[in-house]
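ok so i was messing around last nite and threw this chain in just to see what happens. nothing serious, just curious
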Amino acid sequence: MNARQTISGAITLGVIVSCTNLVGIGDAPPTKLTCGELLHGDCETCGVASCCQELEACAASPSCGPLERCLDACTNDPSCRSQCTIDHATNDSTYPTLASCLASSCDVECGPACGWTADIAPPAVAAACRSCIVANACGLVSTCLANPGCYSTALCVNSAPVPDVTEECATQDPYGATLFKGTVSQIAGKCASDCALGEYWTCVGHVSWPRSSGASTSLVVRAFDIVQQTPIPYVTMRLCAETTPDCAIPLETEQGDSLGFATFTPKIFGGAGNTGPTGFLDIQADCVLYPELFYWSFPLTQDKFQTYASGASPDEITELANSSKVTLNLSEGHVLVQTFDCRNSYASNVTITVSDLAADSKVIYFSQGQPDLTRSVSDSTGSAGVFNVPVGSHTLTVAYNGVNEIEHVTFYVRAGTLTYVLASPTPPQ
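result:
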């Protein structure tokens, strides 16, 4: 299950709009225009008349300016524009403010806003992605881009290094975040293949964990049956330190409510400005849930992170094993992995490797939630698993194209237990 249901699905918009003809940023003050920037043709006339203040703010911004210079040099080539937003990534509010002004006031003069797809996809597929969005999602994308809150949410999500930061993006402008979610959903439904959703890896090699914003955080976990797609009520969850795999002395113990929710308040050692806590949850619910260890796999740094602990009943685990042609070894455990790309979207076409497997261990991939023995990479759900993993500490490695390692996570396996791991891109080893 996706760990950030509020605003992420299978894709994030990223930086997808800019006036394609904005020029002159950083140059000597223009003599033709009083607002500080030049736009070409009809876009120039409309932009100066309607967005002069926004143009001046962008010109004065050390991040908005370089991005617009790069975009102008592309002469509207989608692949070039996509690369610009990689090389000059920004979360500066001046950029969405300018882009939203042009989208709402100069859509005709500067070109349809839904065509400004600079960062919706990797450069190699940017042209195909743009064509698909213009054909299938133009109205909703234009509405989003004309709303500064929606566009700011897109920028925030695009630059979020870990899932709880992504979650925090939804709180900055609730209406904009809701509009963004709907836009993402439509693009994902119409253009997933053209935009190579789940295959954005530009962050690999330079991921760094953020620092905490306070002395503690709120971790909200919902126990969820991944087979039935229903919450699991009244489960017992124990918050455990990463260094104590037996969880003999839990940090906190909570019982889930009727909807499966439990809330923890883990402390951030050293307080604000430090790397947040990692760890895992030990989850038990007698016969309704196969015993589970849940690893969120990154340091919590924001005020709140809400996620799903996806599991299954003992009978469902047995059924999944039978479908995978596996005989469960009761002296070993099992692993379920949910992988994500650099935009915290489900990671497509990745492989997983788990260290120190046994002769009876078996790696499986899924097709729309069901084991698929013909697959050797993840599908659009980003899910994979391993049956019969020996008890002890293991390292998960996620790779794309078979060789490019993008994620490394260490976790523990117990006998007769499912270990559920969220795997987002990690800092270089």
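not much to say yet. The first strand starts at residue 218 and ends at 225.
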